[in-house]
């Protein structure tokens, strides 16, 4: 898990993260912890509010994100498998699948997402931070490419729609 305060069962937190394209994968990527993530969107508004369902292994959740850019409000609610399966059909046409790798980098964890399906070939790295100062001071490794934080082209909701 990355370094932001994760909210559970309706508690509100602030997600502070930066997102980058990946120039080249770090060596031995397959040796790092990974998991398949399936996510679908129930709603996405023009003000940046999103309502997302996510399944990762046995964990199921509903997340509401508000705002745009590097710092956004996030509310995550754990769901049972039955609750998730009841809601999942409503995300038809707005889904994506990716493999996420957790790669240690200094005091951070870089989450590398390797997309599948129609987004095959896209690889992004996200780093989450405890506060905005830490976020601004972060120096990305040389295998990171262009920063795409806040660029709608690389938002998961847009990728799920295409």
**Structural class category:** mainly beta
Mean pLDDT: 91
Query: What is the domain tally?
Result: 1
Would you state the CATH class?
Mainly Beta
Question: If you had to describe this structure to a student in words, what would you say it looks like?
Answer:
The chain is mainly β. It has one domain (12-161): Hypothetical Protein Pfu-838710-001. Helices cover 12% and strands 47% of the residues. It has 3 helices and 9 strands, in the order βββββαβββαβα. The protein has helices spanning 81-87, 132-137, 156-161; strands at residues 12-22, 34-44, 50-56, 59-66, 71-79, 95-105, 108-115, 123-129, 144-147. Strands 1-5-4-3-2-6-7-8 form an 8-stranded antiparallel barrel. The longest helix has 7 residues, at 81-87. Mean pLDDT is 91; it is low at 1-7.
């Amino acid at each position: 898990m990355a370094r932001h305060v994760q909210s559970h069962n309706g508690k509100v937190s602030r997600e502070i993260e930066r997102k980058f394209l990946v120039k080249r994968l770090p060596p031995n990527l397959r040796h790092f912890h990974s998991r398949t993530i399936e996510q679908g969107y129930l709603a996405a508004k023009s003000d940046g509010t999103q309502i997302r369902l996510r399944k990762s292994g046995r964990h199921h959740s509903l997340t509401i994100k508000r705002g745009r850019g590097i710092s956004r409000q996030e509310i995550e609610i754990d769901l049972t498998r039955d609750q998730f399966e009841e809601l999942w059909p409503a995300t038809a046409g707005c889904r994506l699948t990716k493999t996420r790798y957790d790669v240690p980098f200094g005091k951070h964890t870089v989450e590398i997402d390797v997309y599948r399906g129609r987004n095959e070939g896209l690889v992004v790295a996200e780093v989450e931070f405890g506060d905005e100062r830490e976020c601004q001071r972060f120096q990305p490794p040389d295998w990171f490419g262009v920063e795409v934080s806040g660029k709608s082209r690389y938002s998961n909701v847009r990728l799920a729609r295409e």
